[in-house]
Amino acid sequence: MKRVIAKVPPDILHPWIYSKRVADPGDAQPGDDVLVYNTRGEFIGSYLYNPNSILTLRRYSRRQEPLDFIAIKDRLYRAYELRKYLFRGTSETSYRVVFGESDALPGLIVDKYDKGLVFQITTLGMEKRREWVVKALEDVFQPEFLVEKSDSSGRREEGLPPRTEVVFGTVEGPLTIEVEGIRYRVHLLEGNKTGFFFDQRYNRLRLTRWAKGRALDLFSYTGGFTLHLLKGGVKKVFAVEINLNHLNLLKENVTLNGFDLNRVVTFHKDVFHFLDEMLLSGESFDVIVLDPPAFTHKRGGKSGALRGYRLLHDRVLRLLAPGGFLATFSCSMHVSDRDLLESVERSARALKRQLVVIERFQQSPDHPILLGFPESEYLKGWLLRAY
Ligand SMILES: C[S@@+](CC[C@H](N)C(=O)[O-])C[C@H]1O[C@@H](n2cnc3c(N)ncnc32)[C@H](O)[C@@H]1O
Fold first, then answer.
1. Residue 120's domain spans which residues?
2. What residues flank ligand 1, with Cβ below 6 Å?
3. Model pLDDT for residues 19-42, shown as the tens digit of each residue
4. In a domain, 321, yes or no
5. 296 and 322 both lie in a single domain
6. Fewer beta carbons below 10 Å: N end or C end of the chain?
7. Torsion over CA: 320, 315, 226, 97 (sign)
8. How many Cβ atoms from other residues are within 10 Å of residue 84's Cβ?
9. Does any domain span residue 177?
10. 103 and 95 in contact (C-beta within 8 Å)?
């Protein structure tokens, strides 16, 4: 393996080394697995190298070892063992099985949809190992189908074109999965992410306990929160989503789970416009869920993202009935849980509303957070109650 010298301390926990810290790349080639040493000659770890990305080095091991077929397969086994342990004693068959750096496989995401798998490659180093990845996934999981959904924006920064394809097996139209007692129709090829947001599984469950009255599910996607609110006993849910295909699946999911479609009102709208219209109508809601897409994937985009949250919080707090609950989430990597709470606090101050924090939310443990890598703790949220 080639050697790369970087200006980093020997006890670095964070798995990324940015381009400006690379002191001497030697003759390492894009996509290589390399041994990284610091300028004092101390060994740091084994990394994937891509000089064309500002995230030039991504660690996959603290030992000296190549990222070959055996190493990939070994990591897949370990990742699967953790999830089997996590869901032991349950009937869960659909969840995230590989979460990049947290499973020592930087640039690889794999979600299990019952008997099939969907994977996503986001880095050049993993792209170069795609054949091994496919073979190792087959060996470890023996899936009935394998789909690649490599369409994330991060691929562009790695110099990779998007790729979405069925690698093997039959995938026609939406399939049905069950997650935490709720059934969902999922479009693997057309949906967001790999088709379903597994990261919210326990937050949705926890929200069923607080369900009451009239609820608003903003950025609803295919209804993860809507369905749990219905299960929790709300009278009516207003679901707002900009993509009509997602809303159509939401309605299918409502009937699939045996709920009365009359309890759901769908709005095919931009949430920001919807909220302005609602404010004029004088409506109020007992539960509001705010689960927007990531407003930024870059550190530099944080202030813009915070402006987005402020706009939303200013509006939803005015729509929240006395005694009502607000569940607010951020999946923007560079927005912390404190940033999010502060945003609600600022809106509360401006509107002279008193709120208490009831719960703190995070991504479910099938998306483990790597210690020393705050970027892996991307989903955070708060449940607040208004006086
Ligand atoms: C993070 S997902 C929501 C996931 C959902 N809560 C669930 O439990 O599955 C965000 C959703 O917001 C939608 N979206 C993005 N921008 C929007 C906008 N301005 N107005 C309405 N929906 C929007 C996307 O289409 C996507 O379905």
1. 69-172
2. 192, 197, 200, 219-222, 224-225, 240-243, 246, 270-272, 291-293, 331
3. 999 999 999 999 999 999 999 999
4. yes
5. yes
6. C
7. negative
8. 12
9. no
10. no
